[in-house]
Amino acid sequence: MISKILIANRGEIALRIVRACKELGIKTMAVYSEADEQSLHVQLADEAICIGPAQSHLSYLKADRLIAAAEIGDVDAIHPGYGFLAENPDFAEQCEVANIKFIGPKSQTIREMGDKAVARKIVKEAGVPTVPGSEGPIKDDKEALKVAKEIGFPVIIKAVAGGGGKGMRVAHNAPAFQKEFVMAQAEAEKAFGDGSVYVEKYLEAPRHIEFQILADEHGNVIHLGERDCSVQRRHQKLIEEAPSPFLTDELRQEMGQAAVRAAEACGYQNAGTIEFLVDGEGNYYFIEMNTRIQVEHGVTEEVTGYDLVIRQIKIAAGVRLELKQEDIRFFRHAIECRINAENPSRNFAPCPGEISLYYAPGGHGVRVDSHVYGGYTIPPYYDSMISKVITYGRTRRLALDRMNRALSEYLIRGIETTTPFTRAIINDPVFRNGEATTRYIEEFMNRTPKSFYLSNEP
Ligand code: ADP
Predict the structure, then answer these.
(1) Is 287 in the pocket of ligand 1 (CB under 6 A)?
(2) For residue 235, how far is its CA from the centre of ligand 1 (angstroms)?
(3) Are 323 and 214 contacting, i.e. CB atoms less than 8 angstroms apart?
(4) How far is the CA of 206 from the centre of ligand 1 (A)?
(5) For the whole model, what pTM was predicted?
(6) In principle, which of 111, 344, 440, 456 could form an S-S bond with 436, CB 3.0–4.6 Å?
(7) What domains lie within the chain, and their CATH numbers?
(8) CA distances in angstroms from 78 to 29, 31, 176, listed in the order given
(9) Which spans in 49-88 are helix H?
């Protein structure tokens, strides 16, 4: 039984969790930093407690304070959301020790799958294809160069502890390799406190296609289809959609089964995502698992009709998954645009500040998940994503036309946002034709005059 949940997060995901709890009749306790007192998640939760100063490392990343808050609030469970401590195995373990249910997989699973080299090994043993690469982490640059030559250039050097697109460097030839290798190690050490890296083949223009997993605590594992997240800037997703315009039914089935095998292999529980890269010939390769709810989960909710956050909570309460794989149907197309408070004309520099006027789009087929409102001040301390616009329709074409319409209505004054940039992509013929790979944004920016995407005029 779960009757009260502490939400160890902020922003739109904290609000999303509050909403799910309200529908389930579960009480919520929000936490907030001194910069977030005016946040919507604080206002809408049943209780709220301040856990420290604005900087994340003094508040949202302070595991001890979160556990103390949970004890004060006498909650049954903690929902970590995404980011912050969501994939921190020590935090999950602290929850386990304190007998507070962590809404996610076991700490041991987070630890194993959070190490990308270990994760590769686990899924490979389950017969899931991985990108050709080194057996595990490599320390020595000479040894690494030998492996790189065996794999064949270009290669990508990745931090085993990597996340958020950080700690990855591409080397196109042997002379460049040594330099990139040492830099990747240094970057990984700085960003994650762990300099371990491994080497894998760099795929030139793949698609990023991931599968949503649901696994209960009784051994039942299913997938809820894929999301195509190929539209990325600097390895960060900007647009996600389902179904993928690239996958055939046959490939979808095969990859879905592989994703389920990967989740079973690590004894997965709760909601998670298996990420693959897919080349032009339809060869697919596991790259990593995200052991948490993802930003783009709403896309899957809109094509399948299932509420993933509610499912997470039920699974954590020990409820058996009554859904079977054959029950999952994809009955329409959905697409999500992440809207960031960033200035595209200044190389996407973050753009915090007060929103003087705010009007969110609505109407048939539109969902907006956001914590901002008119008069709200975006603090400079956190992620720049301020909203997710999801549109859906019977066909991809309808979903895209709706997205174009929704973005044209979106009014956010006082700060710069990526709305016009995103809208230019939605109307770009290459994207419309379903041809975007992970190289797409770079190509788009090279061939498109800036004036095209700096203004939201129709
Ligand atoms: P992170 O955990 O930092 O998000 P991922 O391993 O998920 O890193 O990779 C993020 C993105 O980086 C992928 O979606 C893809 O665009 C790019 N990428 C990662 N590995 C490769 C590879 N082997 N070849 C080409 N691109 C890659």
Answers:
(1) yes
(2) 6
(3) yes
(4) 10
(5) 0.97
(6) 440
(7) 4-103 (3.40.50.20), 132-201 (3.30.1490.20), 207-453 (3.30.470.20)
(8) 9, 11, 45
(9) 63-73
